[in-house]
């Protein structure tokens, strides 16, 4: 051991690094911090004194709940690059915390019985929508992926619509099954177009990798509420969907198709408080005496 006389035992190194020997053994198994030497006969681990800084950094990064794979990558980078990677990770973490904070407030409202207060801020209206030819793109996706996939898929479909007589109405997204952190739909992006024959030809040539298609969306009446850009985020948008469902239930109305989001405004230029989206359900069971296709607030009422 003369050649290793300057090395520290795991106990001495643990004291210097202010970590436990158990933590150091874990870091070794995970490939985050290997000993400078392992005695073949005894299995004892020995460390250099200058490894203490890396050990402390690893421990601190674990306190940030950084995945082990990312820690292993980060500690191999130079200082400036590692700092940038940590900044990127923390920005993402803060975004997740903000979303979780909103979800917690939403759940508190539900658990405390204040749901009616949440729903009361939504005004529900109705509108009749004619039959339309739509270009479509479908995908199984989780809720965290929607903010990326929705604009990307609608962008591709709107580009295709230029070859099909143009876009004739607001794009919309149909949820054929639940989309959450555990359920993946499927979801269908739809862009109404003018020419069915051209649409079918375009879809046939763009079937993969995007699963493009074309179909005729039947005429229907939608019960909907209009929401702002800030309210589109999950889980805020859940309250809007539930408000429409409560309104329908109170009037004995049934959903006759999957729920949807209708994007009628330019997303990029809209501010957080600008109205951009209608959360809607196709409904049946309306009385002809209800009057005009789009009811006023007085006719439809808030929830």
Automatic annotation (TrEMBL):
Keywords, comma-separated and alphabetical: DNA-binding
Residues of the HTH merR-type domain: 7-77
CDD domains linked to this entry: HTH_BmrR
Superkingdom of source: Bacteria
Designated name of the protein: MerR family transcriptional regulator
InterPro entries noted in UniProt: DNA-bd_dom_put_sf, MerR-type_HTH_dom, MerR_fam, Reg_factor_effector_dom_sf
Native source species: Streptomyces sp. R21
GO MF, one annotated term: DNA binding
